[in-house]
Fold this protein.
Amino acid sequence: MSFSAENRRIADRIVAQYPQSESAVLPLLHLAQSQDGWLSPDGMREVAEILGLEPAQVFSVASFYTMYLREPAGKKIISVCNNISCMLQGSDELLERIEHRLGSKCGHSTSGGEVYLEEVECLAACGGAPCLQVDGEYFENVTIEAADSIVDSAMRGERPEGGKGLPSDFYSEPLGAPSIPEGLGANEGEGS
Amino acid sequence: MTEVLLTRISEPEAWRIDRYKELGGYEALAKALKSMTPEEVAEEVKTSEIRGRGGAGFPTGVKWGFLPDVYPRYLVINADEGEPGTFKDRELIEFDPHQLVEGTIIAAYALKVNWSAIYIRGEMVLGAARLENAVRDAYGAGYLGKNILGTEFDLDIVVHRGAGAYICGEETALLSSLEGQRGEPRLKPPFPAVEGLYAKPTIVNNVETISAVPHIVNKGGAWYASLGTEKSRGTKIFSLSGHVNRPGNYEVELGTTFRSLIDDYGLGVRGGNKLKAVIPGGASSVWFVEEDLDTPLDFDAIAAAGSMLGSGAVIVMDETTCAVRAAARLVKFFSHESCGQCTPCREGCAWMYKILTRIEEGAGRSEDLDLLLSVGSGITPALKTEGRMAMSEVLPYTTICVLGPSAVTAMAAPLRLFREEFEEHIRLGACPKAAGTGITTQDRKASRG
Protein backbone atom coordinates (compact mmCIF):
# COMPACT_ATOMS: atom_id res chain seq x y z
CA MET A 1 0.00 0.00 0.00
CA SER A 2 0.89 3.55 -0.35
CA PHE A 3 -1.19 6.50 0.76
CA SER A 4 -3.10 8.13 -2.07
CA ALA A 5 -2.08 11.73 -2.74
CA GLU A 6 -5.24 12.96 -1.01
CA ASN A 7 -4.70 10.71 2.03
CA ARG A 8 -1.04 11.73 2.21
CA ARG A 9 -2.19 15.36 2.39
CA ILE A 10 -4.70 14.45 5.14
CA ALA A 11 -1.95 12.54 6.96
CA ASP A 12 0.29 15.63 7.00
CA ARG A 13 -2.54 17.75 8.37
CA ILE A 14 -3.28 15.15 11.06
CA VAL A 15 0.36 15.12 12.15
CA ALA A 16 0.38 18.92 12.36
CA GLN A 17 -2.53 18.87 14.82
CA TYR A 18 -0.44 17.37 17.60
CA PRO A 19 2.18 19.03 19.80
CA GLN A 20 4.37 15.96 19.17
CA SER A 21 4.15 14.00 15.93
CA GLU A 22 4.25 10.49 17.50
CA SER A 23 0.74 11.16 18.76
CA ALA A 24 -0.42 10.69 15.17
CA VAL A 25 0.36 6.93 15.15
CA LEU A 26 -3.21 5.80 15.92
CA PRO A 27 -4.97 8.22 13.54
CA LEU A 28 -2.57 7.42 10.70
CA LEU A 29 -3.09 3.69 11.24
CA HIS A 30 -6.85 4.32 11.07
CA LEU A 31 -6.31 6.26 7.85
CA ALA A 32 -4.24 3.45 6.32
CA GLN A 33 -6.85 0.88 7.30
CA SER A 34 -9.70 2.96 5.90
CA GLN A 35 -7.90 3.20 2.57
CA ASP A 36 -7.04 -0.50 2.18
CA GLY A 37 -9.64 -2.26 4.31
CA TRP A 38 -6.87 -3.72 6.46
CA LEU A 39 -3.51 -2.74 7.87
CA SER A 40 -0.76 -4.21 5.74
CA PRO A 41 2.92 -4.36 6.77
CA ASP A 42 3.63 -1.82 4.01
CA GLY A 43 0.96 0.46 5.42
CA MET A 44 2.56 0.30 8.87
CA ARG A 45 6.01 0.95 7.36
CA GLU A 46 4.69 4.01 5.59
CA VAL A 47 3.18 5.35 8.83
CA ALA A 48 6.56 4.79 10.52
CA GLU A 49 8.34 6.62 7.72
CA ILE A 50 6.00 9.62 7.86
CA LEU A 51 6.51 9.91 11.62
CA GLY A 52 10.24 9.14 11.63
CA LEU A 53 9.75 6.05 13.81
CA GLU A 54 11.21 2.56 13.61
CA PRO A 55 8.76 0.23 11.80
CA ALA A 56 9.00 -2.16 14.78
CA GLN A 57 7.56 0.51 17.04
CA VAL A 58 4.54 0.99 14.80
CA PHE A 59 4.08 -2.79 14.44
CA SER A 60 4.17 -3.11 18.23
CA VAL A 61 1.60 -0.36 18.73
CA ALA A 62 -0.71 -1.72 16.02
CA SER A 63 -0.64 -5.18 17.59
CA PHE A 64 -1.93 -3.78 20.90
CA TYR A 65 -5.27 -2.56 19.56
CA THR A 66 -8.01 -4.93 18.47
CA MET A 67 -9.55 -2.67 15.82
CA TYR A 68 -6.52 -2.86 13.56
CA LEU A 69 -6.92 -5.74 11.14
CA ARG A 70 -3.48 -7.06 10.41
CA GLU A 71 -4.73 -9.45 7.76
CA PRO A 72 -7.38 -8.94 5.08
CA ALA A 73 -10.90 -9.53 6.39
CA GLY A 74 -14.29 -9.98 4.74
CA LYS A 75 -15.80 -7.11 2.79
CA LYS A 76 -18.25 -6.48 5.60
CA ILE A 77 -17.55 -6.85 9.30
CA ILE A 78 -20.18 -7.96 11.81
CA SER A 79 -19.13 -7.31 15.41
CA VAL A 80 -21.32 -8.90 18.07
CA CYS A 81 -21.06 -7.73 21.68
CA ASN A 82 -20.61 -10.63 24.09
CA ASN A 83 -20.31 -8.72 27.36
CA ILE A 84 -22.48 -9.04 30.44
CA SER A 85 -25.47 -6.83 29.56
CA CYS A 86 -25.79 -8.33 26.09
CA MET A 87 -25.23 -11.85 27.43
CA LEU A 88 -28.13 -11.31 29.85
CA GLN A 89 -30.30 -10.47 26.83
CA GLY A 90 -29.33 -13.48 24.74
CA SER A 91 -26.21 -12.47 22.80
CA ASP A 92 -24.79 -16.01 22.92
CA GLU A 93 -27.87 -17.37 21.16
CA LEU A 94 -27.66 -14.44 18.73
CA LEU A 95 -24.02 -15.16 17.89
CA GLU A 96 -24.78 -18.85 17.32
CA ARG A 97 -27.60 -17.94 14.97
CA ILE A 98 -25.38 -15.58 12.99
CA GLU A 99 -22.63 -18.20 12.72
CA HIS A 100 -25.18 -20.72 11.49
CA ARG A 101 -26.67 -18.36 8.92
CA LEU A 102 -23.25 -17.28 7.65
CA GLY A 103 -21.96 -20.82 7.61
CA SER A 104 -18.71 -19.67 9.17
CA LYS A 105 -17.38 -19.35 12.68
CA CYS A 106 -16.67 -16.31 14.79
CA GLY A 107 -13.18 -14.97 14.11
CA HIS A 108 -13.36 -16.00 10.44
CA SER A 109 -14.61 -14.70 7.12
CA THR A 110 -17.16 -16.51 4.96
CA SER A 111 -15.65 -18.69 2.25
CA GLY A 112 -16.44 -16.13 -0.45
CA GLY A 113 -14.90 -13.34 1.62
CA GLU A 114 -18.25 -11.54 1.96
CA VAL A 115 -18.44 -11.19 5.76
CA TYR A 116 -16.01 -11.33 8.67
CA LEU A 117 -17.66 -12.16 12.00
CA GLU A 118 -16.11 -11.18 15.33
CA GLU A 119 -17.04 -11.09 19.00
CA VAL A 120 -16.28 -7.77 20.65
CA GLU A 121 -16.28 -6.42 24.19
CA CYS A 122 -18.89 -3.98 25.52
CA LEU A 123 -19.90 -1.54 22.74
CA ALA A 124 -21.51 0.93 25.18
CA ALA A 125 -25.02 0.28 23.90
CA CYS A 126 -26.21 -1.82 26.85
CA GLY A 127 -29.62 -0.11 26.96
CA GLY A 128 -30.26 -1.64 23.54
CA ALA A 129 -28.88 -5.10 24.30
CA PRO A 130 -28.23 -7.32 22.53
CA CYS A 131 -26.36 -5.10 20.13
CA LEU A 132 -23.99 -5.52 17.24
CA GLN A 133 -22.24 -3.39 14.66
CA VAL A 134 -21.98 -3.80 10.90
CA ASP A 135 -19.02 -1.82 9.59
CA GLY A 136 -19.28 0.37 12.69
CA GLU A 137 -23.01 1.05 12.46
CA TYR A 138 -24.94 0.15 15.61
CA PHE A 139 -27.92 -2.22 15.59
CA GLU A 140 -29.73 -2.48 18.91
CA ASN A 141 -32.34 -4.82 20.45
CA VAL A 142 -31.41 -7.31 17.75
CA THR A 143 -33.91 -10.17 17.48
CA ILE A 144 -33.28 -13.46 15.72
CA GLU A 145 -35.35 -12.26 12.75
CA ALA A 146 -33.42 -8.99 12.58
CA ALA A 147 -30.13 -10.89 12.76
CA ASP A 148 -31.15 -13.07 9.81
CA SER A 149 -32.01 -10.01 7.78
CA ILE A 150 -28.76 -8.29 8.75
CA VAL A 151 -26.74 -11.34 7.72
CA ASP A 152 -28.57 -11.70 4.41
CA SER A 153 -28.01 -8.05 3.50
CA ALA A 154 -24.36 -8.21 4.48
CA MET A 155 -23.82 -11.35 2.40
CA ARG A 156 -25.26 -9.51 -0.61
CA GLY A 157 -22.80 -6.70 0.04
CA GLU A 158 -25.60 -4.32 1.03
CA ARG A 159 -25.91 -2.13 4.07
CA PRO A 160 -28.53 -3.70 6.38
CA GLU A 161 -31.61 -1.68 7.30
CA GLY A 162 -32.55 -0.69 10.82
CA GLY A 163 -29.19 0.66 12.00
CA LYS A 164 -28.53 3.79 14.02
CA GLY A 165 -26.70 5.66 11.29
CA LEU A 166 -23.22 6.12 9.88
CA PRO A 167 -21.12 9.28 9.65
CA SER A 168 -21.71 9.40 5.88
CA ASP A 169 -25.46 9.81 6.47
CA PHE A 170 -24.78 13.20 8.06
CA TYR A 171 -21.36 14.51 7.09
CA SER A 172 -19.29 15.01 3.97
CA GLU A 173 -15.88 14.84 5.70
CA PRO A 174 -14.68 11.25 6.18
CA LEU A 175 -14.32 9.90 9.73
CA GLY A 176 -10.88 10.68 11.09
CA ALA A 177 -10.36 13.79 8.98
CA PRO A 178 -8.51 16.55 10.86
CA SER A 179 -10.56 18.32 13.54
CA ILE A 180 -8.86 21.66 12.93
CA PRO A 181 -9.91 23.38 9.67
CA GLU A 182 -6.97 24.58 7.58
CA GLY A 183 -5.67 27.97 8.62
CA LEU A 184 -7.71 28.15 11.84
CA GLY A 185 -5.43 26.34 14.30
CA ALA A 186 -4.31 28.28 17.35
CA ASN A 187 -1.01 26.41 17.60
CA GLU A 188 -0.12 26.29 13.91
CA GLY A 189 3.56 26.00 13.17
CA GLU A 190 4.32 25.16 16.80
CA GLY A 191 4.26 21.35 16.45
CA SER A 192 7.49 19.40 16.39
CA MET B 1 -35.89 12.85 37.08
CA THR B 2 -33.74 15.97 37.29
CA GLU B 3 -32.22 16.52 33.91
CA VAL B 4 -29.28 18.84 33.52
CA LEU B 5 -26.99 17.11 31.05
CA LEU B 6 -29.71 15.23 29.22
CA THR B 7 -32.07 18.19 28.67
CA ARG B 8 -31.30 18.44 24.97
CA ILE B 9 -31.04 14.71 24.24
CA SER B 10 -34.61 14.39 22.98
CA GLU B 11 -34.46 17.61 20.93
CA PRO B 12 -34.22 16.85 17.21
CA GLU B 13 -30.76 17.43 15.76
CA ALA B 14 -29.40 19.09 18.88
CA TRP B 15 -25.97 18.00 17.62
CA ARG B 16 -26.04 20.75 15.00
CA ILE B 17 -24.39 23.98 16.10
CA ASP B 18 -27.34 26.18 15.06
CA ARG B 19 -29.79 23.99 16.98
CA TYR B 20 -27.48 23.90 19.99
CA LYS B 21 -27.28 27.68 20.01
CA GLU B 22 -31.06 28.02 19.71
CA LEU B 23 -31.29 25.83 22.80
CA GLY B 24 -29.02 28.12 24.81
CA GLY B 25 -25.69 26.66 23.77
CA TYR B 26 -22.42 28.65 23.98
CA GLU B 27 -23.98 31.24 26.32
CA ALA B 28 -21.87 29.86 29.17
CA LEU B 29 -18.74 30.19 27.04
CA ALA B 30 -19.44 33.87 26.37
CA LYS B 31 -20.16 34.45 30.06
CA ALA B 32 -16.95 32.73 31.16
CA LEU B 33 -14.61 34.34 28.64
CA LYS B 34 -16.07 37.85 28.74
CA SER B 35 -17.03 38.32 32.38
CA MET B 36 -14.96 35.89 34.43
CA THR B 37 -11.27 35.28 35.02
CA PRO B 38 -9.91 31.72 34.66
CA GLU B 39 -9.58 31.62 38.45
CA GLU B 40 -13.23 32.61 38.89
CA VAL B 41 -14.36 29.81 36.58
CA ALA B 42 -12.22 27.29 38.47
CA GLU B 43 -13.67 28.60 41.73
CA GLU B 44 -17.26 27.98 40.52
CA VAL B 45 -16.34 24.40 39.66
CA LYS B 46 -14.80 24.00 43.10
CA THR B 47 -17.93 25.45 44.72
CA SER B 48 -20.11 22.99 42.80
CA GLU B 49 -18.23 20.17 44.57
CA ILE B 50 -18.77 18.01 41.49
CA ARG B 51 -16.91 14.71 41.77
CA GLY B 52 -15.40 13.05 38.71
CA ARG B 53 -17.94 11.00 36.79
CA GLY B 54 -15.51 8.52 35.24
CA GLY B 55 -15.42 6.12 38.16
CA ALA B 56 -13.08 7.35 40.87
CA GLY B 57 -15.32 10.17 42.14
CA PHE B 58 -12.47 12.53 42.93
CA PRO B 59 -13.55 16.19 43.40
CA THR B 60 -12.90 17.92 40.07
CA GLY B 61 -12.13 21.34 41.53
CA VAL B 62 -9.53 19.82 43.86
CA LYS B 63 -7.93 17.91 40.96
CA TRP B 64 -7.71 21.14 38.96
CA GLY B 65 -5.96 22.74 41.91
CA PHE B 66 -3.11 20.20 41.71
CA LEU B 67 -1.68 21.71 38.51
CA PRO B 68 1.75 23.20 39.15
CA ASP B 69 2.60 26.56 37.60
CA VAL B 70 4.23 24.91 34.57
CA TYR B 71 3.41 25.48 30.88
CA PRO B 72 2.42 24.15 28.43
CA ARG B 73 -0.17 22.10 30.23
CA TYR B 74 -2.89 19.99 28.72
CA LEU B 75 -6.52 19.03 29.15
CA VAL B 76 -7.53 15.58 27.96
CA ILE B 77 -11.14 14.45 27.90
CA ASN B 78 -11.63 10.78 28.58
CA ALA B 79 -14.33 9.58 26.18
CA ASP B 80 -12.94 6.03 26.08
CA GLU B 81 -16.11 4.67 27.63
CA GLY B 82 -15.59 0.93 27.98
CA GLU B 83 -16.68 -0.17 31.44
CA PRO B 84 -19.20 -2.93 30.71
CA GLY B 85 -22.73 -1.66 31.31
CA THR B 86 -21.82 2.00 30.79
CA PHE B 87 -23.31 3.86 27.83
CA LYS B 88 -23.87 7.42 29.04
CA ASP B 89 -20.88 9.12 27.40
CA ARG B 90 -21.73 7.67 24.00
CA GLU B 91 -25.24 9.16 24.19
CA LEU B 92 -23.94 12.50 25.47
CA ILE B 93 -21.54 12.62 22.52
CA GLU B 94 -23.90 11.40 19.82
CA PHE B 95 -26.81 13.61 20.79
CA ASP B 96 -25.19 16.67 22.37
CA PRO B 97 -21.55 16.91 21.24
CA HIS B 98 -21.43 20.69 21.51
CA GLN B 99 -22.21 20.49 25.24
CA LEU B 100 -18.94 18.60 25.62
CA VAL B 101 -17.04 20.90 23.26
CA GLU B 102 -18.32 23.99 25.10
CA GLY B 103 -17.41 22.42 28.46
CA THR B 104 -13.94 21.58 27.16
CA ILE B 105 -13.33 25.16 25.98
CA ILE B 106 -14.47 26.61 29.30
CA ALA B 107 -12.40 24.11 31.30
CA ALA B 108 -9.34 24.83 29.14
CA TYR B 109 -9.82 28.55 29.78
CA ALA B 110 -10.03 27.93 33.53
CA LEU B 111 -6.91 25.75 33.43
CA LYS B 112 -4.92 28.04 31.10
CA VAL B 113 -4.56 25.32 28.53
CA ASN B 114 -4.10 25.97 24.80
CA TRP B 115 -4.23 22.42 23.46
CA SER B 116 -6.75 19.77 24.35
CA ALA B 117 -7.64 16.31 23.07
CA ILE B 118 -10.87 14.36 23.32
CA TYR B 119 -9.92 10.67 23.35
CA ILE B 120 -12.94 8.76 22.09
CA ARG B 121 -13.41 5.02 21.69
CA GLY B 122 -12.59 3.90 18.16
CA GLU B 123 -15.75 1.81 17.96
CA MET B 124 -17.97 4.87 18.35
CA VAL B 125 -17.81 5.89 14.71
CA LEU B 126 -20.94 8.04 14.65
CA GLY B 127 -20.01 9.67 17.96
CA ALA B 128 -16.51 10.47 16.73
CA ALA B 129 -17.91 11.99 13.52
CA ARG B 130 -20.39 14.04 15.55
CA LEU B 131 -17.54 15.34 17.71
CA GLU B 132 -15.18 16.01 14.81
CA ASN B 133 -17.86 18.02 13.06
CA ALA B 134 -18.86 19.82 16.25
CA VAL B 135 -15.24 20.86 16.70
CA ARG B 136 -14.96 22.04 13.07
CA ASP B 137 -18.18 24.04 13.43
CA ALA B 138 -16.91 25.55 16.69
CA TYR B 139 -13.79 26.74 14.82
CA GLY B 140 -16.01 28.18 12.11
CA ALA B 141 -18.03 30.09 14.71
CA GLY B 142 -14.94 31.53 16.39
CA TYR B 143 -15.24 29.41 19.55
CA LEU B 144 -11.91 27.71 18.85
CA GLY B 145 -8.62 28.79 17.34
CA LYS B 146 -6.89 32.10 17.93
CA ASN B 147 -8.46 34.94 19.95
CA ILE B 148 -11.64 33.14 20.89
CA LEU B 149 -14.63 35.54 21.01
CA GLY B 150 -12.20 38.40 20.57
CA THR B 151 -10.26 37.61 23.76
CA GLU B 152 -6.59 36.72 24.19
CA PHE B 153 -7.52 33.08 24.74
CA ASP B 154 -6.37 30.54 22.11
CA LEU B 155 -7.32 26.87 22.04
CA ASP B 156 -7.10 23.90 19.72
CA ILE B 157 -9.14 20.73 20.29
CA VAL B 158 -8.26 17.48 18.54
CA VAL B 159 -10.64 14.54 18.45
CA HIS B 160 -8.47 11.45 18.87
CA ARG B 161 -9.92 8.01 18.15
CA GLY B 162 -8.80 4.99 20.14
CA ALA B 163 -8.56 1.62 18.46
CA GLY B 164 -10.08 -1.01 20.73
CA ALA B 165 -8.45 -1.32 24.16
CA TYR B 166 -10.48 -1.02 27.38
CA ILE B 167 -7.35 -0.27 29.36
CA CYS B 168 -7.03 3.11 27.63
CA GLY B 169 -9.92 4.30 29.81
CA GLU B 170 -7.37 4.24 32.66
CA GLU B 171 -5.97 7.76 32.60
CA THR B 172 -2.26 6.97 32.40
CA ALA B 173 -2.83 4.28 29.75
CA LEU B 174 -4.89 6.82 27.85
CA LEU B 175 -1.97 9.23 27.92
CA SER B 176 0.44 6.52 26.72
CA SER B 177 -1.96 5.79 23.87
CA LEU B 178 -2.34 9.47 23.04
CA GLU B 179 1.44 9.67 22.81
CA GLY B 180 1.31 7.01 20.10
CA GLN B 181 2.36 4.09 22.27
CA ARG B 182 0.79 0.84 23.43
CA GLY B 183 -1.90 1.67 25.98
CA GLU B 184 0.03 0.60 29.04
CA PRO B 185 -0.73 2.23 32.41
CA ARG B 186 2.03 4.01 34.31
CA LEU B 187 2.76 3.94 38.02
CA LYS B 188 1.25 6.79 40.04
CA PRO B 189 2.66 9.01 41.42
CA PRO B 190 3.56 11.05 39.51
CA PHE B 191 -0.09 11.81 38.84
CA PRO B 192 -0.99 13.26 35.45
CA ALA B 193 -1.72 16.66 37.00
CA VAL B 194 2.01 16.89 37.69
CA GLU B 195 3.45 14.73 34.91
CA GLY B 196 0.99 13.72 32.23
CA LEU B 197 0.95 14.08 28.46
CA TYR B 198 4.50 14.57 27.12
CA ALA B 199 5.51 14.66 30.82
CA LYS B 200 3.70 18.00 31.20
CA PRO B 201 0.96 18.84 33.73
CA THR B 202 -2.26 17.33 32.42
CA ILE B 203 -5.83 17.20 33.64
CA VAL B 204 -7.80 14.16 32.53
CA ASN B 205 -11.57 14.53 33.00
CA ASN B 206 -14.52 12.36 32.01
CA VAL B 207 -17.08 13.40 29.36
CA GLU B 208 -19.92 13.66 31.87
CA THR B 209 -17.88 15.81 34.24
CA ILE B 210 -16.92 18.27 31.53
CA SER B 211 -20.43 18.29 30.05
CA ALA B 212 -21.63 19.67 33.41
CA VAL B 213 -19.25 22.63 33.27
CA PRO B 214 -21.37 24.92 31.03
CA HIS B 215 -24.31 24.43 33.41
CA ILE B 216 -22.16 25.20 36.43
CA VAL B 217 -20.97 28.40 34.76
CA ASN B 218 -24.49 29.41 33.68
CA LYS B 219 -26.27 28.77 36.95
CA GLY B 220 -23.42 28.90 39.44
CA GLY B 221 -21.53 26.36 41.50
CA ALA B 222 -23.84 26.96 44.46
CA TRP B 223 -26.86 25.98 42.35
CA TYR B 224 -25.18 22.74 41.31
CA ALA B 225 -24.19 22.00 44.89
CA SER B 226 -27.83 22.45 45.98
CA LEU B 227 -28.65 19.26 44.05
CA GLY B 228 -27.84 15.80 45.37
CA THR B 229 -26.52 14.93 48.82
CA GLU B 230 -24.00 16.57 51.13
CA LYS B 231 -21.01 14.57 49.89
CA SER B 232 -22.31 13.73 46.43
CA ARG B 233 -23.54 16.90 44.80
CA GLY B 234 -25.46 17.34 41.61
CA THR B 235 -27.04 14.94 39.19
CA LYS B 236 -25.54 11.80 37.69
CA ILE B 237 -26.47 9.71 34.69
CA PHE B 238 -27.03 6.06 35.52
CA SER B 239 -26.87 3.51 32.72
CA LEU B 240 -29.45 0.90 33.61
CA SER B 241 -29.23 -2.42 31.75
CA GLY B 242 -29.86 -6.13 32.09
CA HIS B 243 -33.13 -7.67 33.25
CA VAL B 244 -35.27 -4.57 33.67
CA ASN B 245 -38.38 -3.69 31.72
CA ARG B 246 -37.07 -0.34 30.52
CA PRO B 247 -33.28 -0.11 30.28
CA GLY B 248 -31.73 3.25 29.46
CA ASN B 249 -29.79 6.25 30.68
CA TYR B 250 -31.48 8.08 33.54
CA GLU B 251 -30.20 11.31 35.03
CA VAL B 252 -31.20 11.65 38.66
CA GLU B 253 -30.13 13.66 41.66
CA LEU B 254 -27.51 11.77 43.64
CA GLY B 255 -29.19 10.29 46.69
CA THR B 256 -31.98 8.54 44.79
CA THR B 257 -32.05 4.86 45.79
CA PHE B 258 -31.19 1.84 43.67
CA ARG B 259 -34.74 0.62 44.27
CA SER B 260 -36.20 3.79 42.81
CA LEU B 261 -33.85 3.64 39.82
CA ILE B 262 -34.83 0.04 39.06
CA ASP B 263 -38.56 0.31 39.84
CA ASP B 264 -39.50 3.89 38.96
CA TYR B 265 -37.19 4.41 36.00
CA GLY B 266 -36.50 0.86 34.83
CA LEU B 267 -40.12 -0.20 35.54
CA GLY B 268 -38.96 -3.15 37.60
CA VAL B 269 -37.40 -6.54 36.93
CA ARG B 270 -38.59 -8.09 33.66
CA GLY B 271 -41.57 -10.42 33.71
CA GLY B 272 -42.17 -9.77 37.41
CA ASN B 273 -39.23 -12.08 38.15
CA LYS B 274 -37.39 -12.02 41.43
CA LEU B 275 -34.15 -10.09 41.56
CA LYS B 276 -30.98 -12.12 41.95
CA ALA B 277 -28.28 -9.47 42.08
CA VAL B 278 -27.29 -6.02 40.87
CA ILE B 279 -23.86 -4.97 39.68
CA PRO B 280 -24.06 -1.43 41.04
CA GLY B 281 -21.18 0.46 39.48
CA GLY B 282 -19.76 -1.29 36.42
CA ALA B 283 -18.08 -4.66 35.97
CA SER B 284 -15.41 -3.82 38.55
CA SER B 285 -17.85 -3.32 41.45
CA VAL B 286 -18.94 -5.67 44.25
CA TRP B 287 -22.42 -7.11 43.57
CA PHE B 288 -25.47 -6.01 45.54
CA VAL B 289 -28.56 -8.07 46.41
CA GLU B 290 -32.18 -7.22 47.26
CA GLU B 291 -31.40 -6.09 50.82
CA ASP B 292 -28.97 -3.45 49.50
CA LEU B 293 -31.45 -1.73 47.20
CA ASP B 294 -32.36 1.04 49.63
CA THR B 295 -28.76 2.28 49.47
CA PRO B 296 -28.79 5.79 48.04
CA LEU B 297 -26.92 6.49 44.81
CA ASP B 298 -24.22 8.43 46.60
CA PHE B 299 -20.46 7.84 46.41
CA ASP B 300 -19.99 7.41 50.16
CA ALA B 301 -23.18 5.49 50.91
CA ILE B 302 -22.34 2.89 48.26
CA ALA B 303 -18.76 2.67 49.54
CA ALA B 304 -20.07 2.19 53.09
CA ALA B 305 -22.20 -0.68 51.78
CA GLY B 306 -19.03 -2.33 50.44
CA SER B 307 -19.21 -1.47 46.77
CA MET B 308 -18.71 1.61 44.60
CA LEU B 309 -20.70 4.02 42.48
CA GLY B 310 -18.07 3.71 39.76
CA SER B 311 -19.16 4.80 36.31
CA GLY B 312 -22.87 4.59 37.15
CA ALA B 313 -23.48 1.36 35.25
CA VAL B 314 -26.25 -0.55 37.03
CA ILE B 315 -26.67 -4.08 35.67
CA VAL B 316 -29.69 -6.01 36.90
CA MET B 317 -29.81 -9.81 36.97
CA ASP B 318 -33.00 -11.75 37.68
CA GLU B 319 -33.38 -15.15 39.30
CA THR B 320 -32.84 -17.03 36.02
CA THR B 321 -29.24 -15.81 35.81
CA CYS B 322 -26.40 -18.27 36.39
CA ALA B 323 -23.93 -16.59 38.74
CA VAL B 324 -21.03 -18.71 37.47
CA ARG B 325 -21.72 -17.83 33.86
CA ALA B 326 -22.02 -14.14 34.69
CA ALA B 327 -18.76 -14.21 36.68
CA ALA B 328 -16.99 -16.10 33.89
CA ARG B 329 -18.13 -13.54 31.34
CA LEU B 330 -16.92 -10.61 33.41
CA VAL B 331 -13.54 -12.20 34.10
CA LYS B 332 -13.18 -13.14 30.42
CA PHE B 333 -13.46 -9.45 29.65
CA PHE B 334 -10.70 -8.47 32.07
CA SER B 335 -8.53 -11.33 30.85
CA HIS B 336 -8.94 -10.16 27.26
CA GLU B 337 -8.28 -6.52 28.16
CA SER B 338 -5.25 -6.99 30.43
CA CYS B 339 -2.40 -5.01 28.89
CA GLY B 340 0.03 -7.75 29.90
CA GLN B 341 2.59 -5.63 31.75
CA CYS B 342 2.08 -7.16 35.21
CA THR B 343 2.34 -10.92 35.63
CA PRO B 344 -0.27 -11.26 38.43
CA CYS B 345 -2.90 -9.65 36.18
CA ARG B 346 -1.88 -11.17 32.84
CA GLU B 347 -1.64 -14.72 34.18
CA GLY B 348 -4.12 -14.42 37.05
CA CYS B 349 -7.02 -13.12 34.95
CA ALA B 350 -6.48 -15.86 32.38
CA TRP B 351 -6.38 -18.56 35.06
CA MET B 352 -9.51 -17.26 36.79
CA TYR B 353 -11.32 -17.26 33.45
CA LYS B 354 -10.23 -20.80 32.62
CA ILE B 355 -11.26 -22.13 36.03
CA LEU B 356 -14.64 -20.36 35.96
CA THR B 357 -15.27 -21.68 32.46
CA ARG B 358 -14.58 -25.28 33.40
CA ILE B 359 -16.88 -24.97 36.42
CA GLU B 360 -19.65 -23.54 34.21
CA GLU B 361 -19.12 -26.27 31.64
CA GLY B 362 -19.38 -29.00 34.24
CA ALA B 363 -15.72 -29.92 34.49
CA GLY B 364 -15.09 -28.15 37.79
CA ARG B 365 -12.98 -29.83 40.48
CA SER B 366 -13.65 -29.80 44.21
CA GLU B 367 -10.56 -27.71 44.88
CA ASP B 368 -11.43 -25.09 42.23
CA LEU B 369 -13.17 -22.58 44.49
CA ASP B 370 -10.22 -22.37 46.84
CA LEU B 371 -7.93 -22.21 43.82
CA LEU B 372 -9.87 -19.25 42.42
CA LEU B 373 -9.57 -17.35 45.68
CA SER B 374 -5.90 -18.22 45.87
CA VAL B 375 -5.22 -16.90 42.34
CA GLY B 376 -7.19 -13.77 43.28
CA SER B 377 -5.07 -13.24 46.37
CA GLY B 378 -2.02 -13.18 44.12
CA ILE B 379 -3.41 -9.90 42.76
CA THR B 380 -5.06 -8.59 45.93
CA PRO B 381 -3.33 -10.15 48.98
CA ALA B 382 -5.93 -8.85 51.47
CA LEU B 383 -8.73 -10.79 49.75
CA LYS B 384 -10.82 -12.76 52.25
CA THR B 385 -12.27 -16.15 51.50
CA GLU B 386 -15.64 -15.95 53.25
CA GLY B 387 -18.52 -13.59 53.88
CA ARG B 388 -19.68 -10.83 51.57
CA MET B 389 -16.89 -9.08 49.76
CA ALA B 390 -16.05 -5.40 50.29
CA MET B 391 -14.21 -3.18 47.79
CA SER B 392 -11.67 -2.39 50.51
CA GLU B 393 -10.27 -5.91 50.14
CA VAL B 394 -8.73 -5.06 46.77
CA LEU B 395 -6.25 -2.78 48.51
CA PRO B 396 -3.35 -3.21 48.35
CA TYR B 397 -2.75 -4.76 44.92
CA THR B 398 0.29 -6.22 43.22
CA THR B 399 -0.23 -4.56 39.84
CA ILE B 400 0.36 -1.13 38.30
CA CYS B 401 -3.33 -0.35 37.73
CA VAL B 402 -6.70 -1.60 38.99
CA LEU B 403 -7.65 -3.82 36.03
CA GLY B 404 -6.37 -6.96 37.74
CA PRO B 405 -8.03 -6.11 41.07
CA SER B 406 -11.28 -5.51 39.15
CA ALA B 407 -11.15 -9.06 37.81
CA VAL B 408 -10.69 -10.32 41.37
CA THR B 409 -13.87 -8.49 42.41
CA ALA B 410 -15.76 -9.86 39.39
CA MET B 411 -14.77 -13.38 40.48
CA ALA B 412 -14.88 -13.17 44.28
CA ALA B 413 -18.01 -11.05 44.81
CA PRO B 414 -20.32 -13.57 43.08
CA LEU B 415 -18.41 -16.58 44.41
CA ARG B 416 -18.80 -15.45 48.01
CA LEU B 417 -22.45 -14.42 47.55
CA PHE B 418 -23.53 -17.58 45.73
CA ARG B 419 -21.00 -20.17 46.86
CA GLU B 420 -23.64 -22.95 46.97
CA GLU B 421 -24.40 -22.34 43.32
CA PHE B 422 -20.73 -22.71 42.40
CA GLU B 423 -20.52 -25.90 44.52
CA GLU B 424 -23.65 -27.26 42.87
CA HIS B 425 -22.06 -26.87 39.43
CA ILE B 426 -19.08 -28.92 40.58
CA ARG B 427 -21.23 -31.56 42.30
CA LEU B 428 -23.61 -31.97 39.33
CA GLY B 429 -20.91 -31.69 36.71
CA ALA B 430 -23.25 -29.32 34.90
CA CYS B 431 -24.88 -25.94 35.12
CA PRO B 432 -28.17 -26.23 37.03
CA LYS B 433 -29.50 -23.41 34.87
CA ALA B 434 -28.29 -25.22 31.77
CA ALA B 435 -29.94 -22.86 29.32
CA GLY B 436 -27.87 -20.02 30.72
CA THR B 437 -30.13 -17.00 30.80
CA GLY B 438 -32.94 -19.33 29.84
CA ILE B 439 -34.32 -16.99 27.24
CA THR B 440 -34.16 -16.31 23.59
CA THR B 441 -34.24 -12.80 22.24
CA GLN B 442 -37.78 -13.47 21.04
CA ASP B 443 -39.01 -14.28 24.56
CA ARG B 444 -37.43 -11.10 25.78
CA LYS B 445 -39.17 -9.02 23.15
CA ALA B 446 -42.48 -10.61 24.15
CA SER B 447 -41.91 -9.93 27.85
CA ARG B 448 -41.12 -6.33 27.11
CA GLY B 449 -44.31 -5.96 25.12
Remarks:
- Chain B touches chain A through 82 residues (CB under 8 Å).
- Residues 436-449 of chain B have pLDDT under 50 and may be disordered.
- Residues 48 and 225 of chain B are 5 Å apart (CA to CA).
